[in-house]
Amino acid sequence: MSLKPPGGLFKRRSRLAQALATALALPGLSASGLAFAQQDRATELDAVVVTGTRGAVRTEANTPVAIDVFTQDDLQRANGLGGELGQALATLLPSLNFPRQSNSGGADHVRAAQLRGLSPDQVLVLVNGKRRHTSAVVNLESKNGRGTTPVDFNAIPLSAIERIEVLRDGAGAQYGSDAIAGVVNVILKGGSEGSSLALSYGAHRTDFEPSGESLTDGQTLRAAADTGIKLGAEGRLRVGVDYRNRNAVNRAGLDQIPFFEAQTPANLAFAGQRNYKPGDADARDRQLWLNGSVPVGDLEAFAFATYSQRESVGAAFFRYPDSSANVREVYPNGFRPDTLGDSADLGAFAGVRGTLGDWRVETSLGHGFNRFDYGLRNSLNASLGSASPTAFDLGRYRFGQTSLNLDGSYDFGRASTLALGLEHRRENFRTRAGDPASTAAGPLTTRPPGAQAGPGLSARDAVDIDRRVNGLWGELSGDLGERVFVSAAGRFEDYSDFGAEATGKLAARWALGDAFALRAAASTNYRAPSLSQRGFSYTTTSFGDGGQLTRVRLLRGDDPIAAALGVQPLEAETSTNFSLGLAVQVGDFALTLDTFRIDVDDRVTLSERIGGPELAAFIRQRFGVSDISSINFFTNAVDTRTDGAEIVSRYRLPLAGSAIDFSAAYSYARNRIRAVDATPSQIVALGADNLLLGVEERNTLIGAAPRQRAVLSANWEGERTSALLRGIRHGSTTRVFNFGGGFEPEQTYGAVWQLDAELRYRLSTALELSAGAYNLTDRYPDRSSADINYFGNFPYDVLSGIGMNGAFYQAGIEYRF
Question: Among 11, 131, 597, 654, which residue's CB has the most CB atoms within a 10 Å radius?
Answer without folding.
Answer: 131
